[in-house]
Specification:
This protein is α/β, with parallel strands linked by helices. Among the domains are: 409-597, Rossmann fold (3-Layer(aba) Sandwich), CATH 3.40.50.880; 614-654, Immunoglobulin-like. Helix content is 32%, strand content 20%. It contains 19 helices and 25 strands. The strands form 5 sheets. The chain has an 8-stranded parallel β-barrel, surrounded by 4 helices. It binds beta-D-galactopyranose. Residues 141-142, 266, 268, 314, 320, 322, 352, 362, 365 line the site of beta-D-galactopyranose.
Length: 657
């Protein structure tokens, strides 16, 4: 459990570095990320490198015992590079070329840009790869952020053609797979195929899906290119990237296959609450704490992406600059977010940023220190966390805690599912991520821990597996259902598409029919005023936004029916399916039944109360407004806080298994 900070030595006079480093160490910080936007200082002109300042910055940090995470600067190509090669600029979906003057102004498919990235990264890793203070490398910064991938350039089109040729071999196969006879879309060669943007009406969804797959692999290969150089010249150092919350432009599981030791992510709970789908009442309710499941959801997701290893690379400390409204967090939240990250298995929580910059785009973004160098309210809380970490109860078993406990419930999070829904939403309100998050929230409100995993994961260790929606069901998943003992719950639109983006020959849920013998004869999207009602386990609720009309075959029980006779929940043995998006009450009733059937305890937690197991510890985190008497067994030994956990406070106790 380490604390870190994001620091930009190039933004401050050199005479300040020494006191910055000293104060970081005094605060209890041990890791510092630097470098990720400093290309114009590393290479002020083509081929003229200036490393003396970075040598010195690293030395100053190292002198104070701080370890460095070095970022490659490829999120910000300098002006001279753009002037030399204007074709590296990105083109957005509307076909508009984006200008220099902020960041991420590059085309991820540009071969010229990739060469320049390889060059600057090679220079960096040759110089610092084996520096004893440099323990980890971050590639770029938040790849694809600001909608910069997919990119719609000529380079992307060329490479997409090559990708399609490799996938299909013959263009006739592509024509058949995509159904290009429709609207005379047939191609005679791969070279004829353009990008799916800027068409008068919808482009072929199969075209879009392949383009999204291609772009996902572009992001992964962009990282992989740098990763290989880092691996070669920086042996034994952790290779990472800082991902974003709720970000699906590329498949993060696939990305991890291109070389990744740790999945790091950037946690901004308040602005996320502002910009996600919550209604106004919820945005208000959680305005100063963030919604209680936003950080946890991403911790659990990225722990899966990193195959167990997860860091928070940027943690919000105070108000930020990028949401429509940017309030000051409630007192205690910077500390709570930190402990929560550790409870979910983070090895490092690193704060954004050391000091608020009084200039440029993020001058309204706070940090650990105000521009005048005084600790902020959040900064004081970090000092408290550092003290708590330093004196953590010795009876707590670090070995057991290092082992992130496998949850009993797995939830499948599928990136292509989100692409498919975005490509063919069909109902204005159907949102894949929202559906997944609502199921996750429901489980967390019952005190249940969840691992988020890809549909290709080995799920044999879980008692319950839930998939809120899985349009393309892999055959191997069906085999896992048949081979194991777990209970399964699938949501609407499951099995609705083939990998080519067509309707399965036997109709949805396609391959899942082998274990749940139903046929979706028609699907409908529901305007907000259309809310068919149903009852499950005595709980009355409503279907919303989407409904699959399921016809049950032999061996299938209909365990809930909408008032108009359409099945709401169907079941065959250990496999269940809900045919619509449900309101929270009905969703909870179904999930609760599944959790109980899987032999897992269901708790009733107060609003904003959350629990999390880590090794032999159990954490209680209170996002609510009132004190909470946490459900620790009688005589439990507390290592943090106590039985009464106040608002924005946290407790942890040792739990015997
Ligand atoms: C992140 C980004 C940082 C900074 C921060 C502000 O998305 O990686 O560089 O911009 O947001 O909240």
């Amino acid at each position: 459990m380490h604390l870190g900070v994001c620091y930009y030595p190039e933004q401050w006079p050199q005479h300040q570095w020494e006191s910055d480093a000293r104060r970081m160490a005094e605060l209890g910080i041990s890791r510092v990320r630097i470098g990720e936007f400093a290309w114009s200082r590393m290479e002020p002109e083509a081929g003229r490198y200036e490393w003396a300042w970075l040598d010195r910055a690293i030395e100053v940090l190292a002198t104070h015992g701080l370890k460095v995470i070095l970022g490659t600067p490829t999120a910000t190509p300098p002006r001279w590079l753009v002037d030399l090669h204007p074709e590296i600029l990105p083109v957005n979906k509307d076909g508009i070329t984006l200008n220099f003057g902020s960041r991420r102004h590059y085309d991820i498919s540009s071969e010229i840009y990739r060469e320049h990235c390889a060059r600057i990264v090679t220079q960096m890793v040759r110089r610092y790869g084996t520096h004893p203070a440099v323990i980890a490398w971050q590639t770029d910064n938040e790849l694809a952020c600001h909608d910069t991938a997919p990119s719609y350039t000529e380079a992307a089109r060329r490479r997409f053609g090559g990708w399609l040729a490799a996938r299909y071999g013959e263009v006739e196969r592509l024509n058949a797979a995509w159904g290009n006879v429709f609207w005379s879309m047939e191609y005679r060669s791969f070279a004829e195929i353009g990008l799916p943007n800027r068409t008068p009406t919808d482009a072929n969804p199969s075209h879009w899906l392949d383009f999204r797959r291609f772009m996902s692999s572009e992001v992964a290969s962009f990282h992989g290119l740098q990763g290989e150089l880092i691996r070669e010249h920086a042996p034994g150092r952790d290779l990472l990237h800082n991902f974003m919350g709720f970000f699906t432009s590329f498949d993060h599981y696939e990305f991890a296959e291109s070389g990744l030791d740790v999945a790091a992510w950037d946690s901004y709970p308040l602005p996320r609450t502002e910009v996600l789908w919550f209604d106004d009442a919820d945005k208000h309710r959680w305005a100063r704490t963030g919604h209680p499941d936003i950080p946890a959801f991403n911790h659990d997701l990225y722990r899966g992406v990193g195959k167990g290893r997860m860091w928070v690379m940027e943690q919000q400390v105070g108000p930020v600059n990028w949401a429509p409204y940017n309030p000051v967090p409630k007192a205690g939240m910077a500390r709570l977010w930190t402990w929560e990250a550790f409870a979910h298995g983070a090895e490092l929580v690193s704060y954004f940023r050391w000091r608020q910059a009084p200039f440029a785009q993020e001058q309204m973004h706070s940090g650990i220190n105000a521009p005048d160098d005084k600790l902020t309210a959040g900064g004081h809380e970090i000092a408290q966390v550092a003290r708590e970490l330093a004196s953590f109860d010795p009876t707590f078993d670090p070995a057991a805690t290092a082992q992130v406990t496998q949850a009993r419930v797995a939830m499948l999070f599928d990136y292509p599912a989100d692409w498919i829904v975005q490509i063919q939403r069909h109902g204005a309100d159907f949102d894949y991520q929202r559906l997944v998050f609502e199921w996750y929230s429901c489980l967390r409100e019952m005190g249940v821990d969840v691992d988020l995993l890809p549909a290709t994961a080995d799920l044999s260790g879980y008692r319950l597996v839930v998939a809120p929606s899985l349009p393309v069901v892999p055959d191997a998943l069906v085999a896992q259902i048949q081979a194991g003992q777990a209970h399964w719950l699938f949501g609407p639109r499951t099995g609705s598409k083939t990998a080519d983006f067509t309707i399965p020959a036997t109709l949805p849920p396609g391959p899942l029919q082998a274990v749940l013998n139903v046929r979706v004869s028609q699907s409908e999207s529901l305007r907000p005023s259309l809310r068919p009602a149903a009852t499950f386990d005595g709980v009355r609720g409503e279907g919303r936004s989407w409904r699959d009309h399921v016809e049950p075959g032999p061996g299938v029980d209909v365990t809930a029916v909408f008032d108009d006779g359409v099945p709401a929940v169907v079941q065959a043995g250990r496999v269940r399916m809900t045919t619509a998006c449900f309101d929270p009450a009905l969703q909870r009733a179904v999930l609760e039944r599944c959790v109980r059937d899987a032999g897992i305890e269901v708790l009733t937690l107060p609003e904003g109360g959350r629990l999390r197991r880590l090794g032999n510890l159990r954490f209680a985190l209170n996002y609510g407004d009132t004190a909470w008497r946490v459900p620790a067994p009688e005589g439990a030994r507390f290592v943090l806080g106590g039985r009464e956990t106040g608002p924005s406070d946290v407790a942890a106790w040792i739990e015997m298994h």
